[in-house]
Amino acid sequence: MPVRQLPETLVNRIAAGEVVERPASVVKELAENALDAGASRIEIVTDGGGRRLIRVSDDGAGMTRGDLELAVDRHATSKLDGDDLLQIKTLGFRGEALPSIGAVARLTITTRHASEPHAWALTVDAGDKQQAKPAALSEGTRVEVQDLFYATPARLKFLKSDRTEAEAVREVVRRLAMSRPDVAFTLAGEERMPVTWAAALPGAAGRLARLADVLGLEFRANAIEVGAERDGVVVEGYAALPTLSRANALGQYLFVNGRPVRDKLMLGIVRAAYADYLPRDRHPLVALFVTLPPREVDVNVHPAKTEVRFRDSGLVRALLLHALKDGLARGAQRASTTGGSATIAAFRPATLPRRGGFDWRNSPSRPFPPPGGVAAWSTGSGFAEAAQAAFDVGGAAVAARVETIEPTPDALDRPLGAARAQVHDTYIVAQTRDGLVIVDQHAAHERLVYERMKASLGERGVARQILLIPDIVELDEADAERLVARAAELVRYGLAIESFGPGAVAVRETPSMLGEIDAAALLRDLAEHMAEWDETLPLERRLLHVAATMACYGSVRAGRRLKAEEMNALLREMEATPNSGQCNHGRPTYVELKLTDIERLFGRR
């Protein structure tokens, strides 16, 4: 087959395949054009998930008639001052978006520049460019895209349902809204109720307000401000407390010079920063903004401009990691607001008293259920059932006794207050000047032991105690071999083991700070964790996994009765220990209820 020159319409459609992947791609390109035009308000309307209609309106600078006619030609742009692709300060610069969209759909642009007496409108229908005509528009630009991919029917087959495409559009607008809190965004369409993100004030407060609008008020209440700067590279943003996490990494956002990007390396950085706080199957919410000179980043490595390449990627990664770790170290003693909210919800009566009098069966203070269970009562439970189930111990028992303790006046002024009682031999109830604190004694002590173990390792090594009689633990042969192969790593944390024949391991020394532990259960847990380790996992991360597992087995267990002195000592140590607001698994170690919250429960406020 001889070589031939492709016609221009076909070239444009091929090029459109790189830029216009789905309706969300069109919205991204048009909204970025509006931002580059200096818009302070952008409105996006879609129909059919963007398949039938996409309309993007802005109040930006607009275009003259000459600029409008040139804008729909390939590789025509107003975003570059010269020919230097390393000095890009705008979101768009390729000059391909509008002609690519016009090649596969019906594109109509209506725009008005301040120097023009009226607006101009121009239509491109499947690559057929028409003449500009006078139009009515007060300011800015309005771009309408109808029947997307009608000129390339094969592309329509790859689109998903209208709801899925609409959700992809929403995610694009969410990211742009987070990157530019100074711009108001409105998103509307038949698939959703209109959503408006109002323009926020400049500075960190405005950025957090916009993040709260997009990610929810829960993020704002649990956000920690992070920041770092070195050699002209600035990292800013917010990271959520470990107790506010998700089952996937979709809540992690990165912006480079105001450009929303996806960077797989960021996932590894966030995982490393939260490794001390979250298990591997939980992911935090973060929004990080990197600002650096344009020459230090290449934004021309992907047709959709969703990926970037840093000149000094090591510096950027180090700054991101430092900013996150420093922020978490400062804020990880805080308790998540989600815990307090759940506690209040648990105490809120689920049903109202009967008319005409008080019904004890609807009281939060009612006794434990009769032998027949809750079903033996004719009315619903007084607690929110899903929340109360976590506290159900199956009936009254000696373990449910409450030992009250008289507080000392100075202890009430401490952040975690003075211990007043231990409930169910598991939860410590402490009183502060303006509320009360409920502490999970096992989760709290687990974090304290873990932090002590890390500190000992860094200073002088973990002290060991020799067992008079070695503890022989029988395991699966593969698990035993896996443990023995990593014996040198385990001994750094005070656990000395050696092979004792096929499928058996002898434990000769254990960490002294853990006291008496169940060595067999500990080794089985360690073997399970090691089976999931990737060989590329850094040694430090593997050792921290070991320390976290050991801390769990060496902590005060739920069900152990504590003396008043022990409870207060635990509270004081929590106040002095970093990261004590969460255990090693990302769960809160305590929840706090302010007096105003308690008064609200009883209708006093």
Q: pLDDT average, as an integer?
A: 80
Integer tally of domains: 3
Can you give the helix content as a percent range?
25-40%
Counting H and I runs of at least 4 residues, what is the number of helices?
19
Beta-sheet strand percentage? Answer: 15-25%
CATH homolog superfamily of the largest domain: MutL, C-terminal domain, dimerisation subdomain
CATH topology of the largest domain, by name, is: formyl-coa transferase, domain 3
CATH architecture of the largest domain: 2-Layer Sandwich
CATH class of the largest domain: Alpha Beta
> Using only CA atoms, what is the Rg?
31 Å
> Distance between termini?
84 Å
Poorly predicted parts = 350-401
Structural class: alpha+beta
Strand tally, please? 25
What does this structure look like?
- The longest helix is centred in the middle third of the chain and has 19 residues, at 313-331.
- 34% of the residues lie in helices and 22% in strands.
- The protein is built from 19 helices and 25 strands.
- The chain folds into three domains: 8-197, Heat Shock Protein 90; 204-331, Ribosomal Protein S5, domain 2 (2-Layer Sandwich); 403-599, MutL, C-terminal domain, dimerisation subdomain (formyl-coa transferase, domain 3).
Topology:
Elements: H1 8-19, H2 23-36, E1 41-47, E2 53-58, H3 65-71, H4 97-104, E3 106-112, E4 119-125, E5 128-129, E6 133-135, E7 140-146, H5 153-156, H6 162-179, E8 184-189, E9 192-197, H7 204-215, H8 217-221, E10 223-230, E11 233-240, E12 245-246, E13 252-256, E14 259-261, H9 264-273, E15 283-284, E16 286-291, E17 297-298, E18 309-310, H10 313-331, H11 337-347, H12 385-388, E19 418-423, E20 427-432, E21 435-440, H13 441-459, E22 464-474, H14 477-485, H15 487-491, E23 496-499, E24 504-511, H16 519-532, H17 539-553, H18 564-576, E25 590-594, H19 595-601
Helix pairs in contact: 1-4, 2-6, 9-10, 13-17, 13-18, 14-16, 16-17
